[in-house]
C-alpha cells in the first residue's frame, strides 16, 4: 500500500523556556529493523505528531537575545502532506524526502569487525543503528530526539554517543551496551560547553575538549566512564581540538584551527601532559581533514596534508623520526584507514566531487582494486582487528548503502538503501561543468537538467553550498530531484573558496576577496544563459548558512541577474555575526574573514555586509531560520526580513522553533520543503 498523506499538528512557541527531558529517560519501544520501519511508514494513512520543542533551562531560544516574536512568521502547522503513489515518474517532494531518509550515514565498523554501526533518519530523527557484519538483522539503538555523533569503545561491545538539545550543539554523552541494550548518561550537558570528542584512552576513559570553563577556549578533559569523574588535564585555547588517540592510550593527535580549511598539527603526551608541535607551516595547510590512521604499535600514524604543496596528499609521522611525505597526486586525499593489522592502507581521492578508492599493500606497494563498488561519494572504515573494509556509498540515486570488502575480489552488499517507491530511472544524474570566470579562474559546478524535452531553455535554481570551505557533490538530494522532474534545472556551483580543487582555489575568497566568490555566481549565470542551457531571465538563487549569505550578497551586489532568492539561516551583517559566533567558529573566522575587533575589518564589513546594501534587493526572498541556532544568530535573518519588508519587497519568513543550524527532524524538513516548492513555483512561473 502507498501513503496517501502525512498529517502534522500545529506548533506553538513557548514564551519562556521550559526544562527538557533527558534523552536517557525517554521511554523506549521494541527494537526494530529498517525494513520493519519502512513497512510501518508505508501504510495507507499515517500520522506524525510533532511535539512542542523543549528547551533546557539554560538554553537561550533564539540566539543571543531571543527571537523577535513581533515578526510575522510561518511556523509548522496542520498541513496534509501527499506522498503520491509509488512508481510515479514525477514523485512528490514528500516521497523524495522519505526516499532520502532510507540511506545511512557516518557508518563505522566495530573493533574486531563484528558489528557495523550507522546513523539513519528512517524514523524521522537521526538515530543510531547497529547491524551484524555477517548480514543479520539491524537494530535501532536510540529513540530520543536524535544523535549527533558516536564512537566505538575498544572492546567493540559499547558505543559512546552524543546528543544535544534541539540543535543547540551543547552535548551530553551517553554510554550504550550494544549486546545487553542498556545505557547510561555519563556526562550531562553543561551551559556553554561545546564539546569535541577525541577518543577512548582505554575501555573506561575518554578524552575530549570543551569550552565549559570560560565558554570560549577548548580545554582537554579526561572522564572515567565508571565513576563519572572528569578532570581538566590541559588548559587549551580557542580552536584547539583532538583528532585521534593512539591505540596504547599514550598519545593524542591535536589540531588548532587556522581558518576553515587549515590547521596546526600537535602531539599531546598524555603521561607528561605536554604539547609538541608537529607541523606549523608558514603558508597555512591542512593536516587532519582525511583523518588519522595509527599503526597498531602506536609508533606513528598516516595522515594527509597540503603543507608546501597544492593538494592534500599522503604522509606518515613517526614518533621518533618525524614526517615523511608519500605519494603525490593532483587530487585531494579525503579519507585514510589502516586495515588488517597494518597490512593495507586504504584511502579515497576526491576527483571533481566523485570518490576514487585506492588500496595499497603496505609492505609490497602493490595496489589492489575492489570490484562491485558504484560510482559516487565513498566513506571507508576498518575496525582494529577487523578483516574487512567497510565502504559507505552515496550518489545521486543512492541515499546511502553499505558494502564490505575482504581485500580480494568483489565487495559484497551489506545494506542497500531503498528509494521508498521512487523509480530509479526518474533520478537525474548531474554533469560536471567547467566555466571560466572573468578573471580567468576556472570554476566548476554540477548541472542537473530536466530530461523532458522543452522548446525553450528551462528556468533554473542555483543552489550554493555552505562553508564556505565545502563542496557541492553528487549526493541524493530530494529537492533537486523534485525540481528537475518538474521542469526546473538545478545548478550547484563550486565557486572559488570551495574545497576539493587544491590549496590555491580554497584561498581565493579570503577576507577582502570575499565578493569575488559572489561574483562567480554572476559569471556562471551568464555562461549558462548565453549557451541557452537555462532561461537566464528566470533563475533563482538559494543557499543555507554561508550559502544563505551568498544569496543575500549576490542579490544586493548584482541586482538584475536573479529573479528571486531563498536564504536559509544565512548571515546579513558580518559585524554582528562575527561578534556572536559560537566558540567552534571564532578561531577559523579570524583567518577566513579577519578579526572583527580590528578597525580595518570592522570598516570593511560595515560597508560590504548584505544588510548595508539591502536597498538594492528588488526581488522576492524566502527566509528561514531555526530558533535554537548556535552558529548564526536568528537576528541575522530577522533583520533582513524586516528591512526588505520595510522596502516593500516580498520576504516570507519560516521560523522553526525546535531546530538549530539546519533541519534534522523529518516533519520539519517536509514542512519547509513544501513552502520552498510553493515559493519557487511562483517566482519561476513553473508548473
From TrEMBL:
GO terms for biological process: proteolysis. Keywords: Hydrolase. One of its GO terms (molecular function) is serine-type endopeptidase activity. The keyword Chaperone does not apply. Residues 147-411 form the Peptidase S9A N-terminal domain. InterPro entries: 6-blade_b-propeller_TolB-like (IPR011042), AB_hydrolase_fold (IPR029058), Pept_S9A_N (IPR023302), Peptidase_S9_cat (IPR001375). Residues 475-686 form the Peptidase S9 prolyl oligopeptidase catalytic domain. It holds the Pfam family Peptidase_S9_N. PANTHER family: DIPEPTIDYL PEPTIDASE FAMILY MEMBER 6, SERINE PEPTIDASE S9 FAMILY MEMBER. This is Prolyl oligopeptidase family serine peptidase. It comes from Alteromonas hispanica.
Amino acid at each position: 500500500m502507498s501513503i496517501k498523506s502525512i498529517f502534522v499538528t500545529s506548533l506553538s512557541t513557548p514564551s519562556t523556556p521550559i526544562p527538557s527531558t533527558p534523552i536517557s529517560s525517554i521511554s523506549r519501544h521494541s527494537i526494530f529493523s529498517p525494513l520493519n520501519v519502512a513497512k510501518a511508514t508505508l501504510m495507507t494513512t499515517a500520522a506524525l505528531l510533532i511535539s512542542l520543542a523543549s528547551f533546557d533551562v539554560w538554553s537561550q531560544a533564539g540566539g543571543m537575545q531571543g527571537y523577535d516574536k513581533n515578526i510575522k512568521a510561518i511556523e509548522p502547522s496542520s498541513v496534509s502532506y501527499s506522498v503520491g503513489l509509488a512508481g510515479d515518474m514525477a514523485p512528490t517532494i514528500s516521497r523524495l524526502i522519505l526516499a532520502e531518509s532510507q540511506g545511512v550515514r557516518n557508518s563505522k565498523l566495530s573493533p574486531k569487525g563484528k558489528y557495523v554501526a550507522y546513523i539513519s533518519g528512517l524514523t524521522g530523527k537521526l538515530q543510531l543503528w547497529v547491524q551484524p557484519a555477517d548480514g543479520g538483522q539491524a537494530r535501532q539503538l536510540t529513540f530520543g530526539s536524535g544523535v549527533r555523533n558516536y564512537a566505538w569503545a575498544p572492546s567493540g561491545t559499547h558505543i559512546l554517543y552524543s546528543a544535544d538539545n534541539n540543535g543547540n550543539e551543547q552535548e551530553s554523552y551517553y554510554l550504550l551496551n550494544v549486546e545487553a541494550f542498556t545505557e547510561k548518561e555519563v556526562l550531562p550537558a553543561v551551559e556553554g560547553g561545546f564539546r569535541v570528542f577525541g577518543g577512548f584512552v582505554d575501555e573506561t576513559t575518554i578524552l575530549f575538549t570543551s569550552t565549559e570553563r570560560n565558554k570560549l577556549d577548548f580545554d582537554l578533559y579526561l572522564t572515567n566512564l565508571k565513576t563519572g569523574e572528569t578532570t581538566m588535564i590541559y588548559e587549551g585555547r580557542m580552536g584547539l581540538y583532538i583528532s585521534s588517540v593512539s591505540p596504547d592510550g599514550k598519545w593524542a593527535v591535536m589540531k588548532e584551527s587556522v581558518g576553515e580549511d587549515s590547521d596546526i598539527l600537535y602531539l599531546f603526551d598524555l603521561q607528561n601532559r605536554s604539547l609538541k608541535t608537529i607541523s606549523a607551516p608558514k603558508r597555512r595547510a591542512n593536516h587532519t581533514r582525511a583523518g588519522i590512521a595509527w599503526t597498531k604499535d602506536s609508533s606513528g600514524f598516516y595522515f594527509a596534508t597540503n603543507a608546501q604543496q597544492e593538494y592534500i596528499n599522503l604522509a606518515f609521522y613517526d614518533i621518533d623520526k618525524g614526517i615523511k611525505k608519500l605519494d603525490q597526486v593532483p587530487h585531494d586525499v579525503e579519507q585514510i584507514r589502516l586495515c588488517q593489522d597494518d597490512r593495507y592502507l586504504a584511502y579515497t581521492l576526491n576527483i571533481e566531487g566523485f570518490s576514487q578508492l585506492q588500496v595499497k599493500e603496505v609492505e609490497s606497494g602493490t595496489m589492489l582494486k575492489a570490484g562491485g563498488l558504484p560510482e559516487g561519494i565513498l566513506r571507508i572504515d576498518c575496525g582494529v582487528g577487523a578483516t574487512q573494509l567497510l565502504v559507505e556509498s552515496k550518489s545521486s540515486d543512492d541515499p546511502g548503502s553499505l558494502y564490505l570488502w575482504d581485500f580480494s575480489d568483489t565487495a559484497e552488499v551489506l545494506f542497500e538503501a531503498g528509494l521508498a517507491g521512487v523509480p530509479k530511472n526518474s533520478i537525474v544524474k548531474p554533469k560536471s561543468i567547467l566555466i571560466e570566470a572573468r578573471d580567468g579562474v576556472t570554476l566548476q559546478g554540477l548541472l542537473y537538467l530536466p530530461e523532458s524535452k522543452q522548446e525553450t531553455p528551462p528556468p533554473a535554481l542555483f543552489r550554493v553550498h555552505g562553508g564556505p570551505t565545502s563542496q557541492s557533490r553528487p549526493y541524493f538530494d530530494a529537492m533537486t530531484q523534485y525540481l528537475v522532474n518538474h521542469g526546473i534545472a538545478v545548478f550547484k556551483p563550486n565557486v572559488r573558496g570551495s574545497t576539493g580543487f587544491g590549496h590555491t582555489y580554497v584561498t581565493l575568497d579570503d577576507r577582502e576577496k570575499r565578493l569575488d566568490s559572489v561574483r562567480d555566481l554572476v559569471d556562471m549565470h551568464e555562461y549558462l544563459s548565453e549557451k541557452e542551457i537555462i532561461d537566464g531571465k528566470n533563475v533563482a538563487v538559494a543557499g543555507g548558512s554561508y550559502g544563505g549569505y551568498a544569496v543575500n550578497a549576490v542579490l544586493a551586489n548584482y541586482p538584475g541577474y536573479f529573479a528571486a532568492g531563498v536564504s536559509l539561516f544565512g548571515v546579513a551583517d558580518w559585524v554582528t555575526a562575527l561578534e556572536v559566533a559560537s566558540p567552534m567558529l571564532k578561531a577559523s573566522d579570524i583567518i577566513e574573514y579577519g578579526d572583527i575587533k580590528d578597525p580595518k575589518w570592522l570598516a570593511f564589513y560595515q560597508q560590504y555586509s548584505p544588510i548595508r546594501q539591502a536597498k538594492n534587493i528588488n526581488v522576492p526572498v524566502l527566509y528561514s531560520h531555526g530558533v535554537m541556532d548556535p552558529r548564526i544568530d536568528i537576528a541575522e535573518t530577522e533583520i533582513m526580513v524586516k528591512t526588505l519588508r520595510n522596502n516593500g519587497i516580498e520576504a516570507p519568513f519560516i521560523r522553526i522553533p525546535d531546530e538549530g543550524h539546519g533541519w534534522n527532524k523529518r516533519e520539519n524538513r517536509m514542512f519547509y520543503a513544501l513552502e520552498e516548492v510553493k515559493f519557487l513555483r511562483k517566482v519561476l512561473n513553473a508548473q
